[in-house]
Amino acid sequence: MTRITFILGGARSGKSRYAETLAAKHPGRKTYIATAEALDDEMRARIAQHRAQRGNGWDTIEAPLDLVGALERSADLMLIDCITLWISNLMHHKCDVEREVEKLCAALKSKAKVVIVSNEVGLGIVPDNQLARAFRDEQGRANQRLAEIADDVIFVAAGLPLVLKKSQPKPARAKTARSSPADKA
């Protein structure tokens, strides 16, 4: 697994399940950083479903606003789910989203292994109100910034992963051939 894996897709595309499956293969201590808040029965049910789906073996940090603080904790692998709800929370609390995304990107550069989940919200119609358009724009810019620093970027549609960006393995050092006296003749 690469250092930063960014997984995005539409609602109910299978992106969280894919991220959890990918992360489960990683040995060591895993931390799930959840950005959702259980503000109603439907969201409580979604959170319960996610917890049951990933099973035991995970530490969980609830970080609806302070992702950078959550990343300061130690783990062999961290999974952030999801950037979309985090941005919604930031906007609701009137935070500077661009500044928070930049702080997150800086913090991610020092982490060993991180899987990040986000929604792709720019594939539909233009929203009919200013708040929804502002959210779509903030989400799109955040996705671009995270994709830029990620080693791997995977788009999930209908549960199927499509690799958009793949880190390149470091090339092996070429062996230099030594010439023999016969080569000089």
Secondary-structure topology with pairs:
Blueprint: E1 4-9, H1 15-24, E2 30-34, H2 41-54, E3 58-62, H3 67-71, E4 77-81, H4 83-92, H5 97-108, E5 114-119, H6 130-149, E6 152-157, E7 160-165, H7 181-184
Parallel strand pairs: 1-5, 1-6, 2-3, 2-4, 4-5
Antiparallel strand pairs: 6-7
What does this structure look like?
The protein has 185 residues and is of the alpha/beta class. It has helices at 15-24, 41-54, 67-71, 83-92, 97-108, 130-149, 181-184, and strands at residues 4-9, 30-34, 58-62, 77-81, 114-119, 152-157, 160-165.
List keywords for this structure.
185 residues; alpha/beta; seven-stranded mixed β-sheet; 41% helix; 21% strand; globular
Strand order of the largest sheet: 3-2-4-5-1-6-7
Cα Rg: 20 Å
Global morphology: globular
Helix and strand element order: EHEHEHEHHEHEEH
Percentage of residues in strands:
15-25%
Distance between the first and last residues' Cα? 50 Å
The percentage helix is 40-55%
Number of strands: 7
> Which stretches are poorly predicted, pLDDT < 50 over at least 5 residues?
176-180
Mean pLDDT equals 88
Helical stretch count?
Answer: 7
What is the SS-derived class? Answer: alpha/beta
Q: For the report, how would you describe the main beta sheet?
A: 7 strands, mixed
